[in-house]
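Researcher: Let's do a round of design. I'm pasting the structure tokens now; please hold your answer until I've finished.
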């Protein structure tokens, strides 16, 4: 029996795949709405007073990079969801979902809880799952896998940055 949004081969319909892909854009946006502490004046002052390495990018870089990364992840998820259901495709989609959840949680660790050590570890975990996502997606859909490569690069950099900020601000 064929369900409305699921084809016999297990691939998702275009609307269902688009809804899944939109989670890469919507989940972080919704999380940021509920994450008032990260946007509070006290958090902005806390962040401004942190010692940061020389290679810390300007503040304006972060929303530009994350918008591009979230868009790329959405495209990759859409492409994967349109592929026939296989254990490899499903693993790649699970890793996609894990990355979206972990990226969303990282902001709370760093800005909400000011837990620099946990944020550095979390960043490394995101880098690991992003790498696993690319590896899992590659045999299923090479262009989908390619959309995850910039995330791997950025999160590897973010892990180095996060670790440096943590080390520079230990008490």
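Researcher: That's everything. Go ahead.
Model: Designed sequence:
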């Amino acid at each position: 029996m064929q369900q409305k949004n699921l084809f016999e081969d297990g691939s998702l319909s275009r609307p269902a795949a688009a809804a899944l892909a939109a989670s890469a854009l919507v989940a972080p946006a919704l999380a940021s709405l509920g994450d008032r502490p990260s946007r509070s004046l006290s958090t902005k002052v806390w962040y401004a007073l942190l010692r940061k390495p020389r290679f810390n990018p300007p503040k304006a870089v972060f929303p530009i990079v994350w918008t591009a990364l979230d868009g790329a992840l959405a495209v990759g998820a859409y492409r994967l969801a349109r592929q026939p259901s296989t254990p490899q495709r499903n693993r790649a989609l699970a890793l996609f979902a894990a990355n979206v959840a972990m990226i969303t949680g990282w902001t709370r660790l760093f800005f909400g809880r000011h837990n620099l050590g946990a944020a550095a570890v979390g960043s490394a975990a995101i880098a690991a799952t992003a790498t696993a996502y690319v590896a899992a997606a590659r045999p299923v859909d090479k262009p989908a896998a390619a959309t995850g490569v910039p995330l791997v690069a950025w999160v590897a950099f973010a892990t180095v940055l996060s670790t440096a900020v943590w080390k520079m601000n230990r008490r």
